[in-house]
Automatic annotation (TrEMBL):
Pfam families on file: PDDEXK_1
Segments forming domain PD-(D/E)XK endonuclease-like: 611-879
Protein name as catalogued: PD-(D/E)XK nuclease family protein
InterPro entries for this protein: DNA_repair_protein_predicted, P-loop_NTPase, PDDEXK-like_dom_sf, PDDEXK_AddAB-type
Amino acid sequence: MSLRPLFTHIDSIADLLAEGTAILTPNRRLSRAVREAETQYRLANGVQVWTSSTILPLRQYWIERWRIAVTRGLIPPANVVDTTAQRLIWRRVIDADSQGSFSLLSPARAATLCQEASERLALWRINLDDPATRQSFSFDEDSRAFLRWEENFRKALNELDGITPEQALEQLLNCSAALDQAVALLNQDDLPPLHQALCEASPAWKNIQTASSAGSILPVRAFSDPRGELQMAAKWCREKYESDPEGRYAVVLSDMHNDRDRLEFYLRQEFGCLTQNYSSLPVNFATGFRLDRVPLIRDALRILELSVSEVSIETVIAVVQSRFVKPFAFRADQRERSIRRLRELAKDKVPQRVLRSVLDELFDKDEAPAPWDTVLQLEANGAWQKRPRSPSQWLEPFKAVLNAWGWTLGATLDSLEYQQAVQWQEALDTFASLDAFSGALTLPEAIQGLRDVLSEQQFQPRTDDNAVQVLGPLETTGLHFDALWITGMSADRWPAVAHANPYLPHALQRQQGMPHADAAWERRWASARWEQWLQGSNELQTSYVSLLDGTEALPSPLLLDIPQAPEIEEWSADSRWLKQSSSAVFAEVSWDEVPVGKKERAAQGVGTGVLEQQSACPFQAFATARLGAVPLPTPAVGLLASERGTLLHRALFELWGEFQNREGLLALTAEQLDALIDKAVNYAEQGIQKERLDVLGGETLWLERRRLSSVLSRWLALEQDRSEDFAVIAREESREHELAGLRLRMRLDRVDELSDGSRLIIDYKSGALGTVNQWLGERPSRPQLPLYALLEPLAEGISYASLKPGAEGFKGIGEREFEDGIANAEKFLEEGEQGGIGVLRERWKHALTLLAEEFLEGHSVVNPTDEACRYCQRFELCRLGEQQS
């Protein structure tokens, strides 16, 4: 099957090609189309062999002429510095500047803008040594900074014997002997003065416009959702292709960066190339993916990042799960635990030593050495990570690190990934060529430098010419299509908002007609593109999104003379799954409760929290204790609430081990008590995993020590003022209790023996306590302490101990009012009822036994109390929100 040519005006330039005139195009796509049209033209005229014609993009042609002139000895040789190297020099100049009165949020972005500003000045042949021009830079702080940086940039270039491509073209312009070929510009408009001067200096030049008669214009289509616009464009492509496979069709994206990937998905969906037949999509894309973002290269950069001093937790998880990493002998049972431990560190980045201690548990070193150990052996004590090197010197360590991790050995590369691997090697060569411009780089700087090189390159898969094209606004120039669809034609995009370069005086940019300088330039540019689309297609379809963030948007003023489609087209999700759903046969789901079996019961020992969850929402208990559905830890700044609880419990455990009773506490002097508190705080810190201590840092721990010391001092003052003597007879005591066959594990924070022999079970709390009424009723919502009341030997009282600053005190129930806040159990009995806490104990035993029986019988209905959902985080399982909506 042969496609119709994209360039249909070969007759207009055939004589020029025969004369050896160079045809200069505005982009590579038109150059390829002209070359293909020439081939077909010559073959149709019986020519089998011919001299290769010069058909190149304009800028590339002039650079090639400069190189030819150097080869011929007409121009002295020089080192042409490409865009990436220029930005490196600009970055060094900006970083070294000490005169600026402002700080930059992004020096890298400033370097990019300065490089673009410098290039624009050269293309418009602006002489910065001219006093009047320099004065125009003095009115704005950014422009003054640029002028200062530009002088240092020129000095740096001179020291390197380098020139920019634009300086090379100035040399070419001053060498008339090198300009000895006639040139013809094909569909060029708005040439920069430097390129215009080069054309005029050539022995003969022409500007050829291949205008065609305008095709039909269809009514403008409006969509309420951007996805609907792209989905309909994809459907349009399929319909056009199926009606005439030899035709030429294109979708022009006004926002290629954001819309390209989404349109590709819809195109693959329409053409049936999402999974199977992936490579058979009959579509060419004008732009590919940034090379640093394709999976193969992205994972290589992540592997290199594992060697820096602090590593992102997400990076570690991504590398461990990457399919491009050699399948190491990971302990499958440790993978989830290790990932959870990393997340529990509650910080975005962790130090190297912390990372290795966690990963060591994951890797089976009996099978093979761990990759991080291999990396450390590159030089003694990992010195390779600390010594700055030039870019080319970093290549060997980079390759060694990737080899240690077995990069590319984890999966067989398909054709696209093989192309990416080849381009990776080319990018490494480019990175190595930056030695003269970057100097010695640290490891993080080298990785970022390599990332910058990769981000400058596009991965464009090598594919055959296809009927459907996806193009940017500039890439349709000179081409002819059977049908064009132009997206994003809303008033806020066409014409676009002006974006002048912030480092050049705005007045200078407007006077010189530089790109994006003002609204007038944007309108001229948009109008020129519109004329090209009209003349370059037989049928033109335009569309726009009519609603932006809930606000009505208008079509572009360029479309005012075009009728609107009768209605706004609503977007709807792909409904093919509904057909599958209606035709599928599903097995009937049993909603019967699943009791806890004998094996499960024998292996299961749950905490008291399961009864609290069963009371709050039976499904919550089922999901937690039986399904093991525990949410991932949420990263937080500073210590977690659970860690603060651990510190408090360990400190109190240590303190009561020292003075054991109220008498021992009262016997201490203030200095002795302070010393014991310091000792207890030191002991408490040992309860936090070492990795977390490393991550938190000294300042955070110092603040927490001060806070904890204050909390302990206030609490011990309250203990000293208690109404009667007591002795602490149990601390952090582990106990088990069986209730209706359910084995429950618990840990008693503390048990006091009072002066009359009564026992009081105390549970420390550092936050809100609630009320003792939550212990009562048929389904106690806080059953922990009522359960403690059932333990042998029976206690005469149960109480919370609140250590919350400003709210210190006891809250509980006892055989008598042991302390202020511990109420007499008689207050909670019916009128005339006697028996004290013994009666409450029987009620608790009955209520808690029912909760335990419900859990064992598999009662797991989704029926939460008002408070149950606040901290549950299991909505993906119970889907309560969907039921309520």
